[in-house]
Design brief:
Elements lengths: L1 H16 L4 H7 L7 E5 L7 H5 L6 E5 L14 H12 L4 E7 L3 H7 L8 H6 L14 H19 L3 H9 L3 E8 L4 E6 L4 E4 L4
Helix pairs in contact: 4-8
């Protein structure tokens, strides 16, 4: 059973990993000061800490299908509360919205009829705007929608009062990324070019 595999993993963590990093965990037990809020999809293929090579305590992570940020106050709930806490209470200096290739939510947005039997997912898709429906999208059109979605969620993010206030103060930066699963690369949105560019160019 999968849970037995996970329990064996916990045992290995307690035996092999924890002792090597005991000082870090003991410090973290007293509080946190994350360096960024990382909003990404719940897709099992994404590991934010592995991708960014960060340690426990460095990222405050919000995972939700489609890396969707509902505009304020349209859907006050877990995502909004996470943003408010990270930006307003923890005072993170950076917020990253990270989409990814081959996203099931993007496919669903292009073919919403396929998800009619899943009302919660269908309702969530209203935050992903699609100009043209494609029951059989190409890899190129799917990537284009994924990029557009990240830019849209950055726009939604700016509607949240805590984010707007910090942007006005000039001590918060917003970033939009796409994680390309196959080649293992990340492209980042450039406000100057209004395009996603390889992170090597930043």
């Amino acid at each position: 059973m999968p849970v037995e595999k996970f329990l064996r993993g916990i045992s290995r963590f307690q035996k092999d990993i924890y002792p090597e990093h005991q000082d870090l965990f003991e410090r973290l037990a007293l509080g946190q000061r994350p360096e960024a809020l990382f909003i990404t999809c719940a897709d099992s293929r994404i590991d934010p800490c592995l991708l960014t090579q960060t340690k426990p305590g460095e990222l405050f992570i919000c995972r939700v299908i489609g890396n969707v940020v509902p505009p304020y106050p349209d859907a006050i709930g877990g995502v909004s509360a996470t943003i408010e806490y990270a930006v307003g209470v923890l005072r993170v200096p950076e917020v990253i919205v990270c989409g990814h290739t081959d996203c099931g939510v993007m496919r669903g947005a292009l073919d919403p009829e396929a998800l009619q039997t899943y009302p919660s997912v269908s309702a969530w898709l209203r935050y992903v705007r699609v100009e043209r429906r494609e029951p059989k999208p190409t890899a190129e059109s799917l990537l284009g929608l994924t990029e557009d979605n990240v830019v849209a969620q950055l726009r939604h993010l700016r509607s949240h009062p805590t984010v707007a206030a910090r942007l006005e103060q000039g001590d918060l930066a917003l970033h939009g990324w796409i994680y390309h699963i196959g080649p293992g690369i990340v492209t980042a949105y450039s406000e100057a070019s209004q395009r996603f560019e390889t992170t090597a160019s930043f």
